[in-house]
C-alpha cells in the first residue's frame, strides 16, 4: 500500500534505521521501568491516556501508517509525555527484531483491521499463531489486552484465547465483556459506540 509520508520531527519518534538490533530499551528511555507495547496506535489518544496513567511504565507505540505515527507524536509532544516512543513498522517484524525475549510487561491491541470479508480473514493479525508467538516476548504476569468492535473478530479471539495454555482469563468465566472500567477508549472505539456497536474487550495474563 502506497503511503504519502509526513516528515516526523519529535523527541518521541524513533526511526527504525536509528534503532539497533536488538535495542537497549533502558538506554532509550533512560530508566529500568517495565516495557509495554501497543500494536496499532492509531492517532495516539489511547496511548496518551494510558501513558499518563502509568508514568512508571515505558510504552512503545507502533503503527504501520506514517500518518498515525505523526498524529501520535503530536499528542505526546503537546502533553510533554516522556514515557512513550513511537515507531513505524509491521508488528511481527518489529517484535522479532526489536523486543527481547520475555521483555514485555503488557501488550495492547485495539481495533485492528478486521478484514471483514470471509476470504480475507486469514490476514487478521490476532490469531492463535500470533498470540503463541507473542508469548515468547512477554514475561510471567504480563497483561494481554485485545479490543474490537467487529462481532465476528471479537468472538473468534474470545473462543481462541482459552486454548493458549500460557494465558489466564482475567474476566473469570466471561469470554469477553462489553464494558471495561478503567480501560481507556480510543477515538475509534468512541466512534463505533456512538454508531450503536459494542466493543469486545478481552484481558488475559501470562501465567
How is this structure best described in words?
This protein is an alpha/beta fold and 207 residues long. Helices cover 29% and strands 21% of the residues. It has helices at residues 25-29, 45-53, 66-78, 91-98, 128-135, 151-160, 187-194, and strands at 35-39, 58-63, 84-88, 104-110, 138-148, 167-169, 200-206. A 7-stranded mixed beta sheet has the order 3-2-1-4-5-7-6, sandwiched between helices. Helix 3 links the parallel strand 2 (58-63) and strand 3. It is globular, with a radius of gyration of 16 Å. Pfam families: Methyltransf_4. Catalyzes the formation of N(7)-methylguanine at position 46 (m7G46) in tRNA.
Q: What is the fold's blueprint, element by element?
A:
Elements: H1 25-29, E1 35-39, H2 45-53, E2 58-63, H3 66-78, E3 84-88, H4 91-98, E4 104-110, H5 128-135, E5 138-148, H6 151-160, E6 167-169, H7 187-194, E7 200-206
Key phrases:
single chain, 207 residues, alpha/beta, 7 strands, globular, tRNA processing, methyltransferase
Quick overview of this protein structure:
This protein is of the alpha/beta class. 29% of the residues lie in helices and 21% in strands. The termini are far apart.
Amino acid at each position: 500500500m502506497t503511503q504519502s509520508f509526513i516528515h516526523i520531527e519529535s523527541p518521541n519518534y524513533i526511526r527504525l534505521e536509528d534503532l539497533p538490533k536488538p535495542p537497549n530499551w533502558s538506554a532509550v528511555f533512560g530508566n529500568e521501568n517495565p516495557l509495554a507495547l501497543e500494536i496499532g496506535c492509531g492517532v495516539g489518544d489511547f496511548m496518551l491516556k494510558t501513558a499518563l496513567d502509568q508514568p512508571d511504565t515505558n510504552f512503545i507505540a507502533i503503527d504501520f501508517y506514517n500518518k498515525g505515527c505523526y498524529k501520535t507524536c503530536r499528542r505526546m509532544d503537546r502533553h510533554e509525555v516522556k514515557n512513550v516512543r513511537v515507531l513505524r513498522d509491521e508488528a511481527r517484524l518489529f517484535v522479532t527484531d526489536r523486543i527481547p525475549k520475555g521483555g514485555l510487561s503488557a501488550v495492547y491491541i485495539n481495533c485492528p483491521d478486521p478484514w471483514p470479508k470471509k476470504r480475507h480473514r486469514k490476514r487478521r493479525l490476532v490469531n492463535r499463531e500470533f498470540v503463541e508467538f507473542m508469548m515468547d516476548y512477554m514475561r510471567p504476569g504480563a497483561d494481554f489486552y485485545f479490543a474490537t468492535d467487529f462481532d465476528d473478530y471479537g468472538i473468534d479471539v474470545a473462543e481462541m484465547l482459552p486454548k493458549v495454555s500460557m494465558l489466564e482469563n482475567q474476566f473469570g468465566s466471561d469470554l469477553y465483556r462489553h464494558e471495561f472500567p478503567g480501560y481507556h477508549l480510543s477515538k475509534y472505539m468512541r466512534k463505533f459506540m456512538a454508531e450503536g456497536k459494542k466493543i469486545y474487550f478481552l484481558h488475559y495474563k501470562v501465567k
